[in-house]
Write a structure and sequence with these properties.
41% of the residues lie in helices and 15% in strands. It is an alpha+beta fold. The two termini are 40 Å apart. GO terms for molecular function: glutaminase activity.
Length: 414
């Protein structure tokens, strides 16, 4: 039984192993020397459980997979308004290293292309920061996301800097429009050092899972980001993470994701898991050729697509209504989100409660969200206002503090 998920992941890798599409990138020497056969996949759940197959402890440079995390760090420390002054959130429809800025205004289109990522890197630790201090703040933050000390690969930095003409010209362009303040060389060095932090797919799966988990690192339990920050970073990845192939990716895989030129892809199923793959051959869009195939299969097999209409909730949310002396006991079940709560409210409003106590039994809830909880507490408040005595059966504290909108607490059934 233990082997079920790793066996499935191993089969998944076997399904793409013979695919030789794509090329190793040559413009960064260390990537040209990578083993093209590396192949691995890791999943990390919201409880911090890791499931892997293949090359899950090979270290490689994070490259563009760093972009959503650096964006999240900037959002967390500076806020969305300040970050949005310097970078947009629209897909550019161009290659990752295109010389692109928004048509109106001078902002780079989004933080997932190089122009945007160089800009985001610049504002971390304040625009007056030295390169060294800035990269240290980023390295430190990535280490907490991964749950271990990560390091910069100096050989990778040196090799990339020796041929960084494209990124240097991007930095000159950004500086000429006053988007960044650093000298072009420093801006590119700072960004390249961010891209050269070494990770494994196990690290990336945990980092991705932290975003999917709303900012709490699932293994260490540390809160590193606010929910809204994760939401924003995931949303921008959904439309811009896979560069020019983002539309096709959204249709076929259907989850926010980010790729990098070292061959990694991360994908996040919000509230459920973080996933990472490694396979170094890169397709024409700059994405790992086999990585894309693995995610397509994962999404299909596991029903991960966010637009899937299979995940219906709540049509049978009231399980039973029974009587016990003076009490009417309403047992609810399943997933109580807006739709689930709506169906409970409908049943409650149509039911002819006799005088006496109404007891809501939530012990069979699988899960609820804020909206769902608020709606059922509000329904209880109205029943109380209509003259009923109210109580809940809530052994797992599903309703948290049980506070209604008027500040009163629904009593537990003794
Ligand atoms: N450091 C690389 C670059 O700037 C990252 C590119 C990528 O991973 N797509 O070109």
């Amino acid at each position: 039984m233990d082997q079920l998920i790793p066996d499935y992941l191993a089969d998944l890798l076997d399904g793409v192993r013979d695919n030789n599409e794509g090329e190793l990138p040559t413009y960064i020497p260390i990537l040209a020397e990578a083993n093209p056969d590396w192949l691995g996949v890791t999943l990390c759940t919201m409880d911090g459980n890791l499931h892997s197959a293949g090359d899950d402890d090979v270290e490689f440079t994070i490259q563009s997979v760093s972009k959503p995390f650096a964006y999240a760090l900037a959002l967390q420390t500076l806020g969305l308004d300040a970050v949005s002054e310097v970078v947009g959130m629209e897909p550019s429809g161009e290659a990752f290293n295109a010389m692109s800025l928004e048509e109106e205004g001078n902002r780079p289109d989004n933080p997932m292309i190089n122009a945007g990522a160089i800009t985001v890197n610049q504002i971390i630790n304040g625009t007056g920061s030295t390169v060294e201090d800035r990269v240290e703040v980023i390295r430190e933050f990535f280490s907490r996301l991964a749950g271990r000390e990560l390091e910069v690969d100096e050989v990778a930095v040196e090799g990339e800097m020796a041929g960084a003409d494209r990124n240097l010209s991007l930095a000159h362009m950004l500086r000429s429009f006053d988007v960044i303040a650093d000298e072009a060389h420093d801006a590119v060095l700072s960004y390249t050092r961010q891209c050269s932090i070494k990770v494994t797919i196990k690290d990336l799966a945990v980092m991705a899972a932290t975003l999917a988990n709303g900012g709490v690192q699932p293994v260490t339990g540390e809160r590193l980001l606010d929910e809204e920050v994760c939401h924003q970073s995931l949303a921008v990845m959904a439309s811009c993470g896979m560069y020019d192939a983002a539309g096709r990716w959204m249709a076929r895989v259907g989850i926010p994701a980010k790729s990098g030129v070292s061959g990694a892809v991360i994908g996040m199923l919000p509230g459920q898991l973080g996933a990472a793959t490694l396979s170094p051959r890169i397709d024409v869009n700059g994405n790992s050729a086999r990585g894309v195939k693995i995610f397509e299969a994962l999404s299909k097999d596991m029903g991960m697509h966010l637009m899937s209409t299979e995940n219906r909730a709540g049509s049978q949310a009231v399980r039973s209504i029974t009587h016990n002396g003076e009490e009417t006991i309403v047992k609810v079940q399943g997933l109580v989100n807006f739709t689930g709560a709506e169906s409970i409210l409908r049943v409650l409003s149509e039911y002819d409660f006799e005088d006496g106590r109404v007891v809501l039994d939530v012990s069979n809830l699988i899960e609820s969200n804020k909206m769902g909880r608020r709606m059922i507490k509000e329904a209880m408040r109205r029943l109380r206002d209509e003259g009923h005595d109210i109580a809940v059966i809530d052994p797992d504290s599903e309703l948290k503090h049980r506070l209604m909108d008027d500040g009163e607490q629904i009593p537990l059934k003794k």
